[in-house]
């Protein structure tokens, strides 16, 4: 991850950390870990007491303070004293789990961690803070006026990591919209497209290949381009309803798509007679995907509980901010969530400055079983997981009844409610 994307970083090349703990081996372990890692975190001070820390902070600035809870017992005014220093976040380290569960935090930039926790969790907590003097900039957003006045909705599903279920979600969201009598076009812009597999389309399906070839020839006739697109679209049936599918071309053709060519395709697709366009994309931040992100009216980020993948989202978010689409609706989806893991979703929201809009439970065997047989789950309306796909479709077009969608996508104490 590039240093420019670390929140709270000023002129230094890393996020600076001070450790206060009486155990020298604990301090040495953390210092050694960050010396060898690529997390751009640097331990610049180690001490045993808050007195040691106050003395150091008198002449130095530190971003993160990692302080053993026991060290604060000797100084009841510890937090008020630390307010005098330009510190971004304080993480209290507890050696007993009940302290983590029972302690009430006194500020959003004060956090708690169990001492014997994997280092990845330490790093995640270090990255999760609002820089002092700044308001939290929440990247996910919904513009109600834009939703009501957008005639042609383009919904893009994107993730910086493969294998998180982006295609499955895009396919089933498009299917649920179709079952509500919307005229939907599902487009596969992934480098190695799998939408055609989901619908068991014939192997000879060319999809976008002919379209890319047309553009590569330098031809500029919009009516011709529209006709090439129409000839490339397949129609599939879902419970008697028709869904149009434009599958991906060959990997070579998809990799050749430039920013201008992708823009032309998106402009042409909007000239066709569809209410909604649902787009599946690949993980790369190519010109193709940047064009798709710029054209999308509704942008869905898909992540799992994989911490490393979540960090990689930061660079994607930075690029999308630069596209400057203030009316764009942006959502975060957590896929394959399992209650038993107790993943701290609230911490991930803080790290990414994104709010979770929908959570899809872990149903790998069920999802994979239908996918292997080329059956779209919308064909099985009794499946409970369909309620979660309807919840996502309802974010694009609020037209589903309460009983049709998942009961709650809300979160309680950082985990699935």
TrEMBL record:
Q: Where is the AAA domain?
A: 156-324
Q: Which InterPro entries match?
A: AAA_dom (IPR025669), P-loop_NTPase (IPR027417), ParA/MinD_ATPase (IPR050625)
Q: Where does the record place a coiled coil?
A: none
Q: What is this protein called?
A: MinD-like ATPase involved in chromosome partitioning or flagellar assembly
Task: Specify the species.
Answer: Geomicrobium sediminis
